[in-house]
Amino acid sequence: MNITALRISILTPCLNEGEWLEPTLCSVIDQDYPHAEYLVSDGGSHDGSVLALARYDQHITWWCSEVDNGRSDAIHKTLQRATCDLILILNAGDVLLPGAL
User: Fold this and answer.
1) Digit-coded pLDDT (tens) for 13-68
2) Are 95 and 15 a contacting pair, CB within 8 Å?
3) Is the dihedral of CA 78, 82, 88, 90 positive or negative?
4) How far is the C-alpha of 63 from the C-alpha of 54, rounded, in Å?
5) 57: how many CB neighbours lie within 10 A of its CB?
6) Who contacts 50 (Cβ-Cβ below 8 Å, separation ≥6)?
7) pLDDT at 3
8) 3-state class of 73 per DSSP?
9) Rounded to an integer, what distance in angstroms lies between the CA atom of residue 20 and that of residue 12?
10) How many CB atoms lie within 10 A of CB 46?
11) Euclidean distance between CA atoms 21 and 16, whole angstroms
12) What pTM did the predictor assign?
């Protein structure tokens, strides 16, 4: 298999991390890799997280904002929707350097 054809699912679990979420979203969106999908599960934030997700909605494969049972549940929600060869869990506040994928 050609390694450049691998599909990568990037998963971000978050809750009330709006201050850190937008840089994370942008670092994923700015990647120049055509076989990536981005899935975000927000645990029902009451800060600016949902606004950031809505702002970048067209660049995110799937996202939700609903009460969950913690980080592992949020990751599980995204894993159920992932269609990948590789998985990258990227927490809010973490960023990918340009060309990382």
Assistant:
1) 999 998 999 999 999 999 989 999 999 999 999 999 999 999 999 999 999 999 99
2) no
3) negative
4) 9
5) 9
6) 42, 65
7) 59
8) helix
9) 12
10) 9
11) 9
12) 0.92
Could you tell me how many residues make up the chain?
101
Question: What does the alpha-carbon distance between residue 75 and residue 71 come to, in Å, rounded to a whole number?
Answer: 6
Q: Residue 21 carries which side chain, given as an amino acid letter?
A: L
Q: How confident is the model at residue 4 (pLDDT cuts 50, 70, 90)?
A: low
Return the H-helix or E-strand segment holding 54: helix 49-55
DSSP E strands in 15-97: the ranges are 36-42, 62-65, 86-89
Residues 6+ apart with CB under 8 A from 96: 27, 28, 31, 90
